[in-house]
Amino acid sequence: MDSRHQRGGRTGVGMFAGFLTGFFWFFLSFAAMFNGVFFFLLLLPPAYALSGALLVWLFRLPPIHAAFSLVGSVLPWVAWLWPATISSSGWLKSLVWPALLVTAFGMSLLGAQLVAARRRRKTAQADPTPA
């Protein structure tokens, strides 16, 4: 396993950037849902995937760290919104918040893993082992 992500200050900066980016994307989705702009919600999964890919590419974070940093800021809000909306919207409609969280995590992990796999493939091709 590549341990370069454990050195330097880029890891902390990358985690913080992921935290802020996830915070931004979540509040855009929050605003879109409460203002009725549901088309914007279709743009958020690709945004999370792109954000996860950029965190791995720019800061060399492991894919799981990139995905957790993007949804880490969302967890307290979903823990509050989900039970709060059950009484007003019902069980089925309130499940949109956990579904948004799971979708954001999955898409950010997917984008991050695609970039990490490409990086591993490029380093394997560029650095052949002598026979």
TrEMBL record:
<feature type="transmembrane region" description="Helical">
    <location>
        <begin position="95"/>
        <end position="116"/>
    </location>
</feature>
<keyword id="KW-1133">Transmembrane helix</keyword>
<feature type="transmembrane region" description="Helical">
    <location>
        <begin position="12"/>
        <end position="32"/>
    </location>
</feature>
<feature type="transmembrane region" description="Helical">
    <location>
        <begin position="38"/>
        <end position="59"/>
    </location>
</feature>
<feature type="transmembrane region" description="Helical">
    <location>
        <begin position="66"/>
        <end position="83"/>
    </location>
</feature>
<keyword id="KW-0472">Membrane</keyword>
<keyword id="KW-0812">Transmembrane</keyword>
<protein>
    <submittedName>
        <fullName>Uncharacterized protein</fullName>
    </submittedName>
</protein>
